Amino acid sequence: MYLKQAYKGYTDFWRYLIILLLVFVLNIISSIPFSIAAAAKALINGSNIQDFAANMDPTTLGFTENQGLLLLITPLALVFIGLTMGMKYIHGVSWRQVYTSASRFRWKNFFFAVVFWLLLLVAFEYIYFIKHPESYSFHFAGNQFWIMLIISLLSFPLQASWEELYFRGNLMQGIGVLTGTRYIPLILTSVLFGLMHILNPEVDEFGTGIAMAQYMGFGLLLGITVVMDGGLEMAFGMHTINNIYAACFVSYKGSVLHTPSLFSSSDVDLKFMTISFYLGAALFLVVTKYVFKWESFTWIFKPLRRSEA
């Protein structure tokens, strides 16, 4: 399966360190366009960069919401491209093996995850709307919405995919090789994925416990999907549509994304949000296991052996 793909290439420890350094450097490089633009805005308009750092709202610097989205998200395509090339040439695997253990990239799995996860997001959002209609406001921003939608459709797939390629791809494979297990890399990468988001404004808005339960839980869901399905296709799809939904359809106070979305919610029920996420995650795994005829979930606890690669 997918974690065993690592054994088809070079698994020296130093190669994983190079990939980590590559990801770090590429993320810094990808932040340069926004940093230059923000510095220019600060000089011209007297904008306070500290205000932006407090809430990640690009409008505090004088950008429109779409300009901020474009400058913050689109350059992350560089990380995805660089990471893909790094895994191929540093680990010596084929283009296909970077993404999946199947004979080719499975678009059916990708789009199944996109559609099913979107339906779950909409379903639980609708339930909350029925309970608290006064929390929602509709505001169609005309051309600004369509521009944002185009930016989102072009940039979020690459932004989400680099995170999946590193956390559920390279890092999970590396920890799997090191420990000879599936469950340890699954747990560790979920924790690290959550910690990567610890500076997001949601953490201050909702509290560390709730925010980490969401981020680590989402990482765990994506990791289980990769282990059981044998590739990154579904994780790419789920992560992508999750971010597009948050940017384009329903925003809320404290979100890391500041966009002209169709709806905004002024009040978030943290208990409902957490319960609905875990119910949705469980439903996704159970239904997907049936549809794609996965192994038993006990597969996660079976050892990872080079001899079986």
Task: Provide a short characterization of the protein structure.
This protein is an all-alpha fold. It has helices at residues 13-30, 32-45, 49-55, 65-73, 77-91, 95-99, 107-131, 143-179, 183-196, 201-206, 208-229, 233-248, 270-292; strands at 136-138, 250-252, 263-265.
The tally of beta strands, per DSSP, is: 3
Can you list the strand order of the major beta sheet? Answer: 1-3-2
Task: Please give the oligomerization state of what you see.
Answer: single chain
Radius of gyration: 20 Å
SSE topology string: HHHHHHHEHHHHHEEH
Distance between the termini: 8 Å
User: So what's the overall shape?
Assistant: globular
Mean pLDDT: 89
Overview of this protein structure:
By secondary structure, this protein is an all-alpha fold. The protein has one domain (2-308). It is built from 13 helices and three strands. It has a three-stranded mixed beta sheet with strand order 1-3-2. The radius of gyration is 20 Å and the shape is globular.
Q: How are the elements arranged and paired?
A:
Blueprint: H1 13-30, H2 32-45, H3 49-55, H4 65-73, H5 77-91, H6 95-99, H7 107-131, E1 136-138, H8 143-179, H9 183-196, H10 201-206, H11 208-229, H12 233-248, E2 250-252, E3 263-265, H13 270-292
Parallel strand pairs: 2-3
Antiparallel strand pairs: 1-3
